[in-house]
Amino acid sequence: MNDPPGEPNPGRRSRERSRVSDIILETQGMTKEFRGFVAVQDVNLKVRRGTIHGLIGPNGAGKTTCFNLLTKFLPVTRGTIRYDGRDITAMKPAEVARLGLVRSFQISAVFPHLSVLENVRMALQRQRGGSFDFWRAESLLRQYDAQAMALLEDVGLTEYAKLPAGQLPYGRKRALEIATTLAMNPTMMLLDEPTAGMTHEDVDRIVTLVRRVAAGRTVLLVEHNLKVVEGLCDTITVLTRGQVLAEGDYGTVSRNPEVQAAYLGTDPASVGVPEAALAASQQRPEGGAAHV
Question: pTM score, two decimals?
Answer without folding.
Answer: 0.79
